[in-house]
């Protein structure tokens, strides 16, 4: 899926969070790194229209995130930093099924797709569990299942391994690595990026590097040392 930024910038209340940026993303695994407040989340949110560009435009698969907002949003799933907040219904299987409502599917089809996505992410045993009772790793997988059931082409994850222990980090790392879909991952967990195709480094709202992981990370270390 081609994601195109054309002179896109973002200001909040007159303060620039992201300076005008033009680039095209098409790689399967894209990492986004940078210091706190450098513009990573703002950049990622532009992709599915959660943030609108103040100037310029962003398209995903040719769809404009403002003019074709709803269709564009369907192309890119987003997992927030605290994914339990994006789950609407208390029980996991119900939350997943909720994402399929209003699609003209029968109850049997909804149940079948819910079961299939739980299987896909190895969590059928969590189907009847309450979301607020899941562990950090389980919550990440649950959120990924809830988003992927709607069939986006791109999955954007905002710090998916934050607060996870080593075992769950590995699990999420493997889950992301195995996704056939395109994935864009914001992370402070630099080890996650080893096998990535491309890493974008943001600094003070500007793109400071756009390179293979090793090069972008070494530039990041220089910036962080200042
Ligand atoms: N909705 C908003 N309203 C006002 N300012 C915002 C808003 N969202 C982000 N900002 C500001 O824009 C700048 C970039 O924020 P952003 O969340 O994109 O950074 P980040 O790199 O993702 O940070 P972190 O690593 O801490 O999550 C920050 O100065 C932030 O305070």
TrEMBL record:
<dbReference type="InterPro" id="IPR015856">
    <property type="entry name" value="ABC_transpr_CbiO/EcfA_su"/>
</dbReference>
<feature type="domain" description="ABC transporter">
    <location>
        <begin position="3"/>
        <end position="226"/>
    </location>
</feature>
<dbReference type="InterPro" id="IPR027417">
    <property type="entry name" value="P-loop_NTPase"/>
</dbReference>
<keyword id="KW-0813">Transport</keyword>
<dbReference type="GO" id="GO:0005524">
    <property type="term" value="F:ATP binding"/>
</dbReference>
<dbReference type="GO" id="GO:0042626">
    <property type="term" value="F:ATPase-coupled transmembrane transporter activity"/>
</dbReference>
<dbReference type="GO" id="GO:0043190">
    <property type="term" value="C:ATP-binding cassette (ABC) transporter complex"/>
</dbReference>
<comment type="similarity">
    <text>Belongs to the ABC transporter superfamily.</text>
</comment>
<dbReference type="InterPro" id="IPR050095">
    <property type="entry name" value="ECF_ABC_transporter_ATP-bd"/>
</dbReference>
<dbReference type="GO" id="GO:0016887">
    <property type="term" value="F:ATP hydrolysis activity"/>
</dbReference>
<dbReference type="InterPro" id="IPR003593">
    <property type="entry name" value="AAA+_ATPase"/>
</dbReference>
<dbReference type="Pfam" id="PF00005">
    <property type="entry name" value="ABC_tran"/>
</dbReference>
<keyword id="KW-0547">Nucleotide-binding</keyword>
<protein>
    <submittedName>
        <fullName>Biotin transport system ATP-binding protein</fullName>
    </submittedName>
</protein>
<dbReference type="InterPro" id="IPR003439">
    <property type="entry name" value="ABC_transporter-like_ATP-bd"/>
</dbReference>
<keyword id="KW-0067">ATP-binding</keyword>
């Amino acid at each position: 899926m081609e994601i195109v930024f054309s002179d896109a910038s973002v200001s909040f209340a007159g303060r620039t969070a992201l300076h005008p940026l033009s680039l095209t993303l098409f790689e399967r695994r894209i990492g986004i790194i940078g210091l706190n407040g450098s513009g990573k989340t703002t950049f990622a949110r532009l992709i599915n229209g959660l943030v609108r560009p103040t100037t310029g435009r962003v398209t995903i698969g040719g769809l404009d995130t403002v003019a074709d907002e709803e269709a564009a949003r369907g192309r890119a799933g987003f997992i927030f930093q605290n994914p339990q907040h994006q789950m609407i219904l208390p029980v996991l299987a119900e939350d997943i099924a909720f994402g399929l409502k209003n699609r003209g599917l029968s109850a049997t089809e909804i149940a079948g797709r819910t079961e299939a996505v739980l299987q896909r992410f190895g969590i059928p045993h969590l189907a009847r569990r309450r979301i607020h009772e899941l562990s950090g790793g389980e919550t990440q997988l649950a959120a990924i299942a809830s988003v992927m059931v709607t069939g986006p082409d791109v999955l954007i994850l905002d710090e998916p391994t934050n607060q996870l222990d080593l075992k769950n980090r590995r699990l999420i790392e493997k889950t992301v690595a195995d996704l056939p879909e395109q994935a864009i991952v914001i992370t402070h967990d630099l080890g996650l990026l080893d096998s990535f195709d491309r890493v974008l480094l943001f600094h003070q709202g500007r793109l400071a590097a756009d390179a293979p992981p090793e090069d972008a990370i070494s530039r990041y270390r220089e910036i962080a040392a200042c």
